[in-house]
Design goal:
alpha/beta; Rossmann fold
């Protein structure tokens, strides 16, 4: 895996003699991970930074596996943060690791294992030069596609070295694969069940005996590493499988999950989404509820899961909608609105697998789930006594024959001018968005949120011709699209 590592400090030892004189104590990768993890636990530090929602569930299981010295498999649906979790393990390694300079497999200076390094140590003794590898370079990752070969993972004969005149029996003619090149680090196999079974066999020795075999070479190359794999439950049992001997060699199997509550889902969105506009908190809440509704809907094929990328893409689309509107209308600040959520549904279709019975109704299903999420969010933020005076005045304003027209290109100023002064509006904006500075865009967003919720709970009417939405009096009960309170 290509990384851009920092330059090693100039005061680090540069020869094996200097390294030994510095008091260097060699440790295996698993010992290194264990000692650093225990120190973080003692100091009360976060052990898996950047991982949201696993603190009391998956996190302790991973910590126990590391402290037990186990390789492990993360088993869970797509988009649950398995790869992110695996990559975060690199932070538990020492910042800098010494190795014999020029070694392809990062040989331990005090106990080299490859033929070239043993020869160099025999020739140069303690004067053999030492280089340093940053922790970010000690991670290897392979997506286990069906076309992956044993040569990719373990290694093969290098025809260039043979052409230089070396014997085929010379161990130095080997071109090492990804696994030995990650020696003294962490190696990850993503989507392990997709790896052809005969290729999985090549990993048996790596996991148990900690060595590799390359073609017909009489070679035993002991490796020092932690191996972590990921798999989806559907692939685990259907599309592919982990062969029993390999599965048995992993020390632990850990189940991952989606965020268990709304606050964690929203925290994940704020951390992962690339947001370039203002996304009010009530909209993040609606997106989180929308995502959970999609995950629970019988219309969705739940075996494949609904990735966190669904909600992340949703928030990023909302940001894009706000930026587009701001550019067209000249609004000073791009602020997303609730009407944008149903507009972006078609862009999300490809991120979920629908039940076969829903064919042809995909957009309608997602729009309905989005509206239910908006209604639930509306009840949470505007269903209390504090918002009642404002909502009462807003309904009366509509009953007086007034209408509010909005669209994806309606400016915030137009919405504020149409509504005019409404009693309790400022208090409601402060209540719904207590951590945001009040602005025209934010007030317009709250007004549209309030109007949409009143329609969803059948208190006002709504006319949507595809281009413009018009909210008005509900003297005639709407029979299409509204939701019971």
């Amino acid at each position: 895996m290509t990384t851009f590592a920092p330059t090693p400090p100039a005061d680090l030892p540069r020869s094996r003699r200097e390294l030994l004189d510095s008091g260097y104590r060699p440790r295996t990768v698993k010992e290194e991970l264990q000692e650093n993890l225990l120190q973080r636990l003692r100091d009360g530090q976060v052990t898996l930074p950047g991982i949201v929602g696993f603190e009391d569930t998956v996190g302790p299981q991973v910590e126990r596996a590391i402290l037990a010295g186990h390789d492990f498999v993360l088993l869970g649906e797509r988009g649950q943060g398995k790869t992110r979790l695996i990559r975060s393990l690199v932070g538990l390694l020492d910042e800098w690791m010494p190795y014999i300079e020029g070694c392809e497999i990062n040989d331990e200076p005090t106990a080299p294992v490859c033929a070239q390094c043993r020869r160099r140590v025999a020739e140069m003794g303690d004067d053999v030069p030492i280089a340093w590898r940053h922790r970010s370079e000690r991670y290897g990752e392979k997506l286990a596609t069906p076309d992956t070969s044993v040569g990719d993972l373990v290694g093969d004969v290098d025809p260039v070295k043979v052409a230089e005149g070396r014997s085929l029996g010379d161990p130095e003619t080997i071109h090492y694969g990804l696994v030995p090149r990650t020696n003294r680090g962490i190696f990850a196999l993503n989507e392990l069940p997709d790896l052809v079974e005969r290729i999985q066999v090549a990993l048996l020795n790596v996991l148990e005996e900690r060595d590799i075999q390359v073609r017909g070479y009489n070679l035993r190359l002991p490796l020092d590493m932690m191996i972590v794999a990921s798999a989806n439950p559907e692939d685990y049992t259907n599309r592919g499988r982990i062969i029993t001997p390999l599965k048995d060699r992993f020390g632990a199997e850990i189940r991952t999950h989606y965020p268990l509550d709304l606050d964690l889902e929203m925290e994940l969105l704020e951390q992962e989404a690339e947001i370039r506009a203002v996304i009010p908190r009530h909209l993040l809440d609606a997106v989180a509820r929308f995502t959970r509704a999609v995950r629970e809907s019988p219309a969705i094929d739940q075996r494949s899961g609904v990735s966190a990328r669904f909600s992340i893409a949703c928030v990023e689309e909302l940001s894009g909608a706000a930026l587009r509107r701001s550019a067209i209308t000249g609004d000073d600040e791009p602020v997303a609105r609730v009407g944008d959520l149903t507009d972006i549904v078609p862009a999300l279709r490809g991120k979920v697998e629908f039940d076969m019975t829903e064919e042809g109704y995909e957009d309608e299903t997602l729009v309905l789930l989005a509206r239910r999420a908006i209604a639930d969010s509306w009840r949470e933020h505007l269903g209390g006594a504090q918002a009642r005076p404002f909502l009462t005045h807003l309904v009366s304003w509509f009953d007086d024959g007034n209408t509010l027209e909005t669209s994806d290109v309606t400016s915030a100023a137009s919405i504020l001018a149409a509504i005019g002064p409404v009693e309790g509006l400022g208090a409601v904006v402060s209540s719904v968005e207590p951590d945001m500075a009040e602005s025209a865009g934010l007030v317009a967003s709250v007004i549209e949120f309030a109007a949409e919720g009143l329609w969803l709970t059948r208190r006002i009417d709504k006319d949507d011709d595809g281009a413009t939405i018009s909210y008005g009096s509900n003297r005639v009960v709407d029979s299409d699209g509204g939701l019971d309170e």
